[in-house]
């Protein structure tokens, strides 16, 4: 009887050990599965982050649009006076191209001065009209412009492109007159690259001696 009981106890212990080992094995497998799942999830998140970063770096369109918006915003920060003055200068180039001399000279003050590219060309309005009206006009397309305002006075300089002469420069002054911006002085010149400045000025000296 005792032998049978002992045998049963041994068998029971063996069964319990096997059950415990089975539970431990299952728990270990479950732990490994959780670890693997977490590892896969972390890897997926990391890969997703890298992909988003790569897409952001490979998307020049978005950067260009942002930059373009900033440029437009900067361009629109000029005050109403400067916008009105810029419109006067735009109309000046348009009317000279159309040879619409009545509208062209209405943009100047009566005591305005035009300084041309020749050293002799410093004209009041009467002289300038006498020169301009018989012509078919001239065309200068705006490339770049800068305005500096001091109260009712605006200084400007602009780069222009002429079909006849290429790169040209206009500088001058606008004065607010009776509530409107009028040109008090306009100076047209041809910028000379430094590399050929001495060559060009030597030709000018030679021409002046003749």
**Alpha carbon gap, first and last residue:** 146 Å
Q: Give the percentage of residues in beta strands.
A: 25-35%
- Rounded to the nearest angstrom, the radius of gyration is 42 Å
Instruction: Give the overall form.
Output: globular
Total helical elements: 6
Average pLDDT number: 77
Count of β-strands: 6
Helix and strand sequence: HHHHEEHEEEEH
Give, in spatial order, the strands making up the sheet with the most strands: 2-1-6-5-4-3
Judged by helices, strands and strand pairing, the structural class is alpha+beta
Largest sheet, if any? 6 strands, mixed
Low-confidence stretches: 1-22, 44-77
Percentage of helical residues? Answer: 55-70%
Précis, in short:
The protein has 210 residues and is of the alpha+beta class. Helices cover 56% and strands 25% of the residues. The chain has a 6-stranded mixed sheet.
Which terms would index this structure?
single chain, 210 residues, globular, disordered N terminus
Written overview of the protein:
This protein is globular. 56% of the residues lie in helices and 25% in strands. Mean pLDDT is 77; it is low at 1-22 and 44-77. It has a six-stranded mixed sheet with strand order 2-1-6-5-4-3. By secondary structure, it is an alpha+beta fold.
